[in-house]
Amino acid sequence: MDSYFSIFFTEVYKILFLLVPVLVSVAMIVWLDRRVWAFVQKRRGPNVVGPFGLFQSLADALKYIFKEIIIPASSNKLVFVLAPVVTMTLALISWAVIPFSEDFVLADINVGILYLFAVSSLGVYGIIMGGWASNSKYPFLGAIRSAAQMVSYEVSIGVIIINVLLCVGSLNLSDIVMAQQNLWFVIPLFPMFVIFFISALAETNRPPFDLPEAEAELVAGYQTEYSGMMYAMFWLGEYANILLMCAMGAVLFLGGWLSPIDIFPFNAIPGPFWLIFKILFLFILFALVKATVPRYRYDQLMKLGWKIFLPFSLFYVVLTSSFLLYFDLLPGK
Amino acid sequence: MIAHSVFFYIFSLIAIVSAVMVTVSKNTVHSVFFLILDFISISCLFIMIGAEFLGMIMLIVYVGAVAVLFLFVVMMLNVAEQKGQWFSSRWDGGTHIPVGLLVSLIIFFELIIVIGGWKYKPDLLDSLSINISTEVTNTRSIGNVLYTDYIHLFQISGMILLVAMIGAIVLTYRERAGVKRQSYVKQISRERDEGVDLVEAERNKGVKIDA
Predict the structure, then answer these.
(1) Does A166 contact chain B (CB < 8 Å)?
(2) Which of A146, A179, A294, B87 has the fewest Cβ atoms nearer than 10 Å?
(3) Which domains does chain B have, with CATH numbers?
(4) ipTM
(5) pLDDT digit string (tens) for B95-153?
């Protein structure tokens, strides 16, 4: 029993060591997103609170904490309160399997990539619950839109993951990174990387696929009835999910914690920093897309997911597997 | 070991309670939420016995896809009202209770047979031709069996699913009149010359469009 509790407390310590940086970086990433967005549009963006406006997100969080939480009288109260909690929790628990370096990973499980995929497919429930429990038209329409969109793009993300797994021969995330020691998968699987990036935009409800919260049509979509800290939790969960998608892209295609070239000045930098660089790179791409591309129409979104991405990534699975089979490169005999 | 059994009982308790709540709760959407909770705790049990692949697939397929579709149907159609109708005596289509009782009795006896089967479990494990080794991950061992010994069954079940999917589409598809379709090619290839028309408008007369 004693050993059980000591294990328990070391695990809690490790979890805190991972989660606190993630939460702080989510706050920073919101600031970065707004800054990049502003620079593209020749504005300054948030630059008043703290140096370069770095503490803007903290000020916002303070504001949200002190705002009143309004729960609509006709809403389904339990589900209404649970929805942001579910969103936030699901966004955070996926970080458990992300490998930051060879020995710095919270849970090095055999089916790491499946776990990531499963948890990100659960993310849709926070949105559906929020939209349904609000008992109001706009949130409900937003939730339905979002659910259909996320389910559609998950399918193509799943097929893209199969492409990577064919080259690795393991579902473990550390194995996926180690398989890229000679060649990052972004080079042989470049079309898949592009599709993964676009699907990740759709999966996280980012512009140009932010139809669930299209303010011109649906006010704020599923978040319309939320206020104060509950709204902030939706927001935090959304950005944590975006960071997670960037981390997933970095691990699957950009070689995770590996340095680009294995020579002195590069391989002296510790692995976690490389992973953070890659996550930031992908995130800045996300922000640039948000600043430059107009919103899609809903039928175009569905057409892109089902009629273009899905057939193409299925075709690429056949291509990858026949290539590996023909040149006898199949991993793990 | 104590921690293991504590977690086992927690997950089983959640699974059983939520399974009961699925049938008991009045609100149909709540039923689906309890069903999801049930799926999640069952997949936790799968992970606890070391079948992490099955647990994850359960999460992805049932919770991530099937239950979302359930929610869709339940939210869009007013199932709650219909349910009330079916079980009330005033519904003229006859009551569903006798049929429901028959089905539940059959399932109950099947469950009894399954529980009885546990008695033969040790013999069954000995007679298995597959040797289960703890060395390889269970994803790999499932793959080794599924794509070699049982490849035909696997392919046939895939075919059946495909046929079912096409069948469902064919059954529900109806040609509707007056649906406006958009062609991207047509939209994109529109030029300025055909889209814009420069007209000299006479004063106090206006312009006739669509002439």
Answers:
(1) no
(2) A294
(3) 1-95 (1.20.120.1200), 131-173 (no CATH)
(4) 0.80
(5) 677 888 899 999 998 888 888 777 776 666 666 655 556 667 777 778 888 888 889 99
